[in-house]
Amino acid sequence: MPTPDPTAPRIAVIGAGPGGLTCARVLQRHGIPVTVYDRDAGREARDQGGTLDLHADNGQVALEAAGLLDAFFAKARPEGQEMRVYEARTAALKGRHVPEPEELFKPEIDRGVLRDLLLDSLALGTVRWGHALTAVEGPAEGPRTLRFADGTTAGADLVIGADGAWSKVRRALSGGLPAYSGVTFLEAWFDDVETRHPELAALVGQGGAHAADGERAMFAQRNGGDHIRVYLIRRVRADWLAARGLTCADTEAIRALLLAEYADWSPALRRVLTDNDGPFVDRPIHALPVPHTWHPQPTATLLGDAAHLMPPLGVGVNLAMLDAAELALAIAESETLPEAITRYESQMRPRSEEIAAHLEGAAAGLLEAGEGLDAHLHQG
Known about the structure:
- By secondary structure, the chain is α/β, with parallel strands linked by helices.
- The protein has helices at residues 18-29, 59-65, 69-75, 111-120, 193-196, 198-204, 240-243, 251-261, 267-274, 305-308, 316-333, 337-359, 362-365; strands at residues 11-14, 35-37, 51-53, 83-87, 93-97, 108-110, 127-128, 133-137, 144-148, 153-156, 158-161, 179-190, 208-212, 216-223, 227-235, 281-287, 300-302.
- The chain is 31% helix and 23% strand.
């Protein structure tokens, strides 16, 4: 595709998460100009979340296309592939996976570290911070107008929606909306764990630890910087806090509820309900319908959660990054943008539909006790 500045298509990526940044990086490696718009005020505006395991057959493939695979391995934690499964009522160790010394199928990296790696690989000024998209306007044939919350606008010949679960770009393509899965993750943080929470550090090890009793579950995940995040997985109403007149700021009241719900669990595991540092974070799990389809447009497309939001079972970021790399390569190797979109969507849709169908209802499956769940529990 010809890319001299005067004639280059105006490509706009909405969302500076791993998917959007991967797309921008691969485009720039092929000499294609791109602008990324993100609602955050800057790269340090908010916490970027927990740790991710990037798989050899998708996330790492995308990083190789971005020329960042070696840089990723330099920052990743292969030891984070360890997984422990405990019996909920006794805290007896039921199963454990310890990675081999050279095992690199899905090493861990903190989401913020990965985002910084991608941001630092882009040309200066690629990301326009403080641009919260409100609408994509203009005909499907283009050009498109991006309207932002601050009243500014920008033109684009191709809009790439990498803006997550509640994508504004999706509205220009489909009426699909995420639906609540019936399962909520309640997140708790633990800092300086080797010093302040040594029992939890020993329980979790270098990777993750899981326990479930069929009604509720607990997943603890080692992060970099001596942190651990714990996700309490429960089947509740999406508004369970508001229905009790509570917010996430009501830490002690939430603890009292959790202690009652997990009353039969081992004291060693119940410690995570009372010892967390700071408030809980409520994360109701939503998913898009399967299949989620739209009529192709020559000036807009979607990747990652914007296209195929699924439960957080180890595939989200990996698929978003693979989508991003394949889309960018299709643009670089096609004669026209419509040709590139057709090529990309013909690959992305069947893959995401197959995986989404397999995972449909799997969020509830995390509550079931037993072996094998560790394969699905990383927050990918």
